[in-house]
Amino acid sequence: MGSMLMLGFGGFMGILKIVLMALAAFALVDAAVRREDAFRAADKQNKVFWLIILGIALVVSILFSILSILPIAGAVASIVYIVDVRPALRHVTGGSGFGRRRGSSSDGPYGPYNGGR
Questions:
Q1: 59, exposed or middle or buried, with CB in 10 Å at 0-12, 13-18, 19+?
Q2: How far is the C-alpha of 83 from the C-alpha of 106, rounded, in Å?
Q3: Are residues 61 and 71 in contact, defined by beta-carbon separation less than 8 angstroms?
Q4: Based on the number of CB atoms within 10 Å of its own CB, is 66 exposed (0-12), middle (13-18) or buried (19 or more)?
């Protein structure tokens, strides 16, 4: 019974480790495709800072056990980027980057052009 519990716990920790690696990888790639000037315009440090922090978060999530403090700190950095920095960058750049919606050719700066109706 005890070995089944440890096996289940190990499986859960393995899944959690994969989720944290995916979170850090997503944040790193997203930061890499953003424009440098968007970081300054959003007043969110700079692109190199976030690339270094998120790169370290990814490496730490790969190399260390989830029970140590370093992967947790990396997860916090990734979450801060995703919930705070990324929305600010999307606001500044008009939503460009991953998941970018393309407008119609008749879209103006304030939305679709409806011919003066």
A1: middle
A2: 32
A3: yes
A4: middle
Residue whose structure tokens are 């968007």? 38
Distance of CA 10 to the CA centre of its chain: 26
Burial of 12 (0-12, 13-18, 19+ CB in 10 A): exposed
pLDDT by residue (tens digit) across 47-97? 999 999 999 999 999 998 888 899 999 999 999 999 999 999 998 888 755
Longest dimension (CA), the chain: 73
**Dist CA 77 CA 79 (whole Å):** 5
User: What's the pLDDT score for residue 2?
Assistant: 63
The per-residue pLDDT for 96 is: 59
